[in-house]
Amino acid sequence: MVQQQLPPTRYHIDRPEALALYRDMVLGRTFEDTCAQMYYRGKMFGFVHLYNGQEAVSTGVIKALRPDDYVTSTYRDHVHALSKGVSARSVMAELFGKATGCSKGRGGSMHLFSAEHNLLGGFAFVAEGIPIATGAGFTAVYKGTDQVSACFFGDGATNNGQFFECLNMAALWNLPVLYVVENNLWSIGMYHHRASSVVEIYKKADAFGIPGVRVDGMDVLAVREVAKEAIERARAGGGPTLIECTTYRFRGHSLADPDELRDPAEKEFWRKQDPIPRLAAFIREQELATAEELKAIDQQIRAEIDDAVLFAEESPEPPLDELYRFQFAEDE
Amino acid sequence: MPVKLFYEALKDAMAEEMRRDPNVYVLGEDVGHYGGSYKATKDLYKEFGELRLLDTPICENAFTGLAVGSAMTGLRPIIEGMNMGFLLLAFNQIANNGGMLRYTSGGQFKIPMVVRGPGGVGKQLGAEHSQRLEGYFNNVPGLKIVHTSTVYNAKGLLKAAIRDDNPVMFFEHVLLYNLKEDIPEAEYLLPLDKAEMVKEGRDVTVLTYGRMRHHCSEALAELAARDIDVELIDLIALKPLDLETIGRSLKKTHRVVIVEEDMKSGGVGAEIVASIDEHYFDYLDAPVVRLASKDVPVPYNGRMEATVIPQPHDIVKAVEEMLALRV
Ligand SMILES: Cc1ncc(C[n+]2csc(CCOP(=O)(O)OP(=O)(O)O)c2C)c(N)n1
C-alpha cells in the first residue's frame, strides 16, 4: 500500500502559541483515551468514534479561527468541539447522556453542538455537515460579516454528492468556507484507493476553480500555516479552499471496531509520525519550553479530564418529563 | 377586495414578509430570473436582488442543507421545490437536520425554514411528477406540515409559516395555482395548527385537505340536492392535526369520511383513523371510511390516472352508503 510522508516543515512560532497548540492536542488525545476507558466501563454507549492521531488537523485549523467563526464536524466530533472551546466537562457529560452535556443529553457522541461557540454540530451521516457549513458561509455573505466557516470530513465523504454540490455552490458564490478533508486513508474498512477514482483529493478543487492544497496532517504547524492562508483569503472575500490533510487514525473506526483489517506495518509507519511527540520535539529543539514544562501541561490536562469525568458522573440525568422539550422552537 | 390568483397570493405573502424582515430569503431552482416554475416568485428578484432570490444549481440535498445551515446562523430561508417530488433528494437534510437538529442540539438552534412548492397529481404529468409527500414527511419528528387549498388560506398560512421559528413543510397543489378569489387588502395571518370549518352540517363529517377539498365541495352540492347535510372540514394542519375540531364535529355527526389524495398505505388518513380510534371511538356510529389514492405509481394515461384518486362521485357514493347503514 502506498505510504506518504511529506517533507518536514519548519515554521516560526512563539512560545505562548506553541504551548497553546501543544495543550490543545494533548487535551484531545487525553480526552479520547479517557473515552475509551469510560466506554469499556459502561459509562458511555452507542457509537463512539475516536480521533487519536488526527489531532494536528483539529488544532491546526480551529486554533487559527476566531471564536465567532463557525465549525461543523462529523461523527468523529469530540476533539473538534474541544478545540472550538467547548469545555471537557460539557462534552464528557454529553457522552454520559447527562442534562449538563453540551446537547443536554439529547445528542450524544455524534451530535455535539454549542451555540455559544458557534459549533454547528456533529453530523452522524457521512458528508451531512458539509451543506450546513456552506449555509453558515452563505449567512456571512448575506449579512456582510467577515465570519468564516470550517467543515471537517473524511476522505470517504469526498465521494458523496453533497461534497461536490457544495463545492460548486461555494465557488459560485465565493463563500468563506474551509473544506477540510481529514484523509486518514480508511472509511471503516474501505481503503481510500479502492473508493476514490482520483486519490489526490485536493485535486478535486480544480474542477471548481478553487484553491486545493495538500498538507501533512501530522504536522500541526504545517496545517496551521495552510489554514491561516485559507482563512485570510476567505475573510477577504476570496472564497473557499479545499484542504486535504494527510493523516491516520490510530484506533479502530469506532470503539466497537476490533481494527483487524489494517496492516500492522502501516499502523506502525503512521504511529512514528504521531503529531504530539513531533510538536514536543520541535518545541524542545527551538527551546520554546523544557521537557518538564511540557510534562506539567500533560498533568494539568490529566487533572482537567479527571474533573470532567467526575462532573459527568455526578451530573443529573435529563428529567423524563422533559422528553418532548426542545423539539419545537416554542420550547425554550 | 382585489381578485388574486393562487400563485399571486403566495408571491404577495413572500414579498410582504421579505419587506418586513431582511433575513427572509427564497432559494431554489429558477426562483430568481425565471420567476419560479409556477410564477410564485415572478419578478421578485427585481425588488430584492439575486442574493435574496437565490437561483441554486440543481442539487436539492445540498441546497436544502445550505438553507438549514443559514437558518441556524440567523436567516429565514424559504425553499421552493421546483416540484415537491424532487425534494425526495433532500430527504436527508429535511429529516435529519431540518426536523431533528433543534432537538439533538438540546434546543440551542432554531430552524426557521419553510419548504414549499407544487405537488400532487396534476394532469398526466407521470408518476414522478405526481407525488404526494405528506405521508413520507409525516413520520419525521420536528416538522410542521401544512397543506393549503384556497387563495385566501394560501396567503395567510404562508405568511404565518415564514414567521414560524420551526421548519414547516408547506404543500401547494399543481392544479390550484390559477384559482381566483377576492382576498383582503389588509394584512392577515392564519394559524398553522387549525382546521377550517368549510361548511357545517349534521349528518356526516367529511375530513379532507388540499385539492380534494374542491372535489368534496362538488360532492356536497350533489348530496345537498338529495337532502343530505354534510359537515366539511379542510384539515390544513396535517401535523400537528387539529384533533379538537375533528372531535367536536364527530361528536355531532357520529360519522366520518376521510378524503385524501395521498396514497392509502401509511398516509395522513391512516393517522387520522388511528387518532379517532384512540380519542373518540365511543362517539362513532359507524366505522370510519377512507377514500385515498390507490397504492400504485400514478399512470400517465388520463383515464387510468383519474381512477387513482378519489373523484366527486366516489365521495357521494361513500357518504350515501354510510348513511344507508343508519338505523
Ligand atoms: C450516509 C452514510 N452512509 C454510511 C454511513 C456509515 N459510515 C459511518 S463512518 C463511515 C466511513 C466514513 O469514512 P470517512 O469519510 O473517510 O471518515 P473517517 O471515519 O475516516 O473519519 C461509514 C460508511 C454513514 N454514517 N453515513
TrEMBL record, chain A:
Swiss-Prot/TrEMBL catalytic activity: N(6)-[(R)-lipoyl]-L-lysyl-[protein] + pyruvate + H(+) = N(6)-[(R)-S(8)-acetyldihydrolipoyl]-L-lysyl-[protein] + CO2
Does the keyword section mention Oxidoreductase?
Answer: yes
Write the record's keywords in alphabetical order, separated by commas. Oxidoreductase, Pyruvate, Thiamine pyrophosphate
* E.C. number(s) listed in UniProt: 1.2.4.1
Keyword Oxidoreductase attributed:
yes
Cite the InterPro entries for this sequence: DH_E1, PDH_E1_Alpha_Subunit, Pyrv_DH_E1_asu_subgrp-y, THDP-binding
Please report the stretch or stretches of sequence annotated as the Dehydrogenase E1 component domain: 24-319
- Write down the top EC class of this protein: oxidoreductase
Q: Which cofactor does it need?
A: thiamine diphosphate
Known function: The pyruvate dehydrogenase complex catalyzes the overall conversion of pyruvate to acetyl-CoA and CO(2).
UniProt xrefs under NCBIfam families: PDH_E1_alph_y
Quaternary structure and interacting proteins, as annotated: Heterodimer of an alpha and a beta chain.
Name of this protein: Pyruvate dehydrogenase E1 component subunit alpha
What are the top taxonomic ranks of the organism? Answer: Bacteria, Bacillati, Cyanobacteriota, Cyanophyceae, Gloeobacterales
From TrEMBL, chain B:
**Keywords from the UniProt entry:** Oxidoreductase, Thiamine pyrophosphate
Q: Which Pfam families match?
A: Transket_pyr, Transketolase_C
The record ties this protein, via SMART domains, to: Transket_pyr
Domain Transketolase-like pyrimidine-binding per the UniProt entry, residue ranges: 4-179
Concerning InterPro entries, the annotation shows:
THDP-binding (IPR029061), Transketo_C/PFOR_II (IPR009014), Transketolase-like_Pyr-bd (IPR005475), Transketolase_C (IPR033248)
Gene3D superfamilies named in the record: 3.40.50.920, 3.40.50.970
Q: Tell me the domain of life.
A: Bacteria
Its required cofactor(s), as named, are: thiamine diphosphate
SUPFAM superfamilies, per the entry: Thiamin diphosphate-binding fold (THDP-binding), TK C-terminal domain-like
NCBIfam families attached to this UniProt entry: PRK09212.1
Q: What is this protein called?
A: Alpha-ketoacid dehydrogenase subunit beta
